[in-house]
Each structure stands twice: as structure tokens, then as C-alpha cells.
Amino acid sequence: MILNSGCLRCKEEFHLSQCGFNHDPPEDLVRSQWQRRNKSFFYLIYRWVIAAIFIGAVVVSMSRNVTASDWGYYFIYLTNWGIIACMITTTMGAILVSLWHFHPQFSARVEGDGVVPAAFKVYWALHNSTLIMSVIITIIYWSILFDSNLHTVDATNVLTHATNSVFMFIDILIVAYPVRIYHACHALVFGGVYIIFSVIYFVAGGTTKTGSTYIYSVLNWNNPGSAMLTFLGVCALGIIIHLIVYFIYLIRTWIYRRYFEEDEILPTTTSPCSTIPGHGISMVLGQFGQDNRAFTTSTEKLQYTDKY
């Protein structure tokens, strides 16, 4: 019988009565899909490189757009919310992977409990939402908002409106954590919080640097019907993007299982997760392994085959 080696630990680590994939191993949130060992120095370096890229993007963006007199305007734009969220997400991921890599007590506790810690859940939700929002920001900006007469395609513009979605998309190809369809709600919550902020900002009389009463032309609350249609359209776009990401996740895991995963071959058809007392080893090895032909030498196997 061929079983995935991860199933062998389901009874002890996840307290399940039978093997299956209906659990989310917490260590998947700090591992790469493609690493063979429990810890990977290369993945640790990768996480810090991605974090450094987004920290640099935020620093460059602020240095180009923030002054002492109007720094508050920087935080009214969804683009800047998105790039800051990417920075927080990737930095948090780098810190968690570092803890996993350098603190054996931390990793042992996480694996031993078999429960996803709160910090891991926050990171997972942030990654889900920032990935979808980054792609939405890129699509809407370059297809609707970009005006060559008003905007220039410089390093800052590319960093905040293109690099974010590119690197977050690359990340979903590398990380090991699963994607769930119902996790589309994370990005919807992120977008909903921004919508509420934009309404409050409008009602409070907030303006942009140029004196406009709306932050984005497509989100003009002077025309609430049109603004709500925009919001609903963005929600639909977010759900579509999340479904695409979900299928990318399925392809990613299929490729891993098909070409990279090493299956363990067990000499029995009995589940290793059996909870029947006294049958844990004897069901696999037979009578202490003496009568199980899978554990005989190759010569004995040939003789046994010839004889019978």
C-alpha cells in the first residue's frame, strides 16, 4: 500500500481517527512547498529577501510622496494600503520562519500541539488578502485609473502598482500553505474596511492634495449608486482572482505530489492510524515481523516466489 508519509503522523499530531487531508498542518505556514527537509535555509533567505523588497518599496514610495506638511494624504489611498500590507505580511512571514528555523522549542511546540497558532492564522489571513488586493490594485490602476497625462511610469509607480502583485503571485507558487475557497472573505474584509474608511473620509469633508472631494474617480461618494456598483464589481473581481489562485494551488500541489514527493511503501493494507489497542505494530509487522515476507531478504523472497 502506498501512503503519503504525512499521514503517518495524523493520530499523534492531529488527533484524527483516520488518515486524510482534512487538516491544515501548522508547519505548512512556515515551509516551502518544494523543500524536502523540515527546515530550509534557502527558504529562510527567500522570506527575508521578499520582506526587504517590500520594505524598500514602502520607503521609496514614502520618500517620493510624503512631506512634513502633507504626510497624512499618503494613507488615504488603497494603493498605499496595499503596499504597506505587503510589507507587514512578508516581514511577519520572515519573522515566523526565523523563529521556526532558529528556535527548536517553538517548532517542537507547534508540531506537537498540531494546532495553528494565532500568529500563524494572522499571517495566513494577511497573505490571502494582500495577494488578492495587490492583483486588484494592479488591474484597476493600469486599466482604469492610469492617465499618461497625469502619471509617469517611474520606479515608484511600478513598485506600488505592479511589483506588489508580481512578487505576491510568485510567493503563492513557493509557499506550502493550502488555499481554501472560503478564504476569499479575507480580501473582501480588507476591501470592506477601505470602503468604510472612504465613506467616513468623504462625510468628514476630507479631500486629496488637489482638493478633490473623492479619493478615486471610480469611488466618488457624491454619486453613491455608482460607487457601490464599483465596490460590488471589485468584490466580484476579487472572488474570481481568488478562484484562480485556488486552482493554481491545486496545480502546485499536484506537481509536488507527482514529481517531488517521496511516497512511503508499507508492507500492509492496514491503516497506520489504527486506534485499536495492541495492534499498532503487530498489524504492520505480523507476528513481530517474523512471518511478514516483506521483511525477508531478497534471496528468501525469490525462493518463496519460486516455491509458490
Describe this structure in words.
This protein has helices at residues 10-14, 41-65, 78-102, 104-113, 118-145, 155-174, 184-203, 224-260, 282-285, 298-307; strands at 2-3, 264-265. Strands 1-2 form a two-stranded antiparallel sheet. The longest helix has 37 residues, at 224-260. The protein is mainly α. The model is unreliable at 1-22 and 263-308 (pLDDT under 50). It is built from 10 helices and 2 strands.
Looking at the structure, what is the overall shape? elongated
Unreliable sequence segments = 1-22, 263-308
The overall strand count is: 2
Query: How many individual helices?
Result: 10
Helix content: 55-70%
Largest β sheet strand count, sense and barrel closure: 2 strands, antiparallel
Mean pLDDT: 80
Spatial separation of the terminal alpha carbons = 22 Å
Estimated radius of gyration? 26 Å
Compressed to H and E, one letter per element, the order equals: EHHHHHHHHEHH
Q: Structural class of the helix and strand makeup?
A: mainly alpha
Give, in spatial order, the strands making up the sheet with the most strands.
1-2
Roughly what fraction of the amino acids lie in strands?
A: under 5%
Q: Strands, helices and their partners?
A:
Elements: E1 2-3, H1 10-14, H2 41-65, H3 78-102, H4 104-113, H5 118-145, H6 155-174, H7 184-203, H8 224-260, E2 264-265, H9 282-285, H10 298-307
Antiparallel strand pairs: 1-2
Helix pairs in contact: 2-3, 2-6, 3-5, 3-6, 5-6, 5-7, 5-8, 7-8
In short:
The chain has 308 residues and is mainly alpha-helical.
Features:
single chain; 308 residues; mainly alpha; 10 helices; elongated
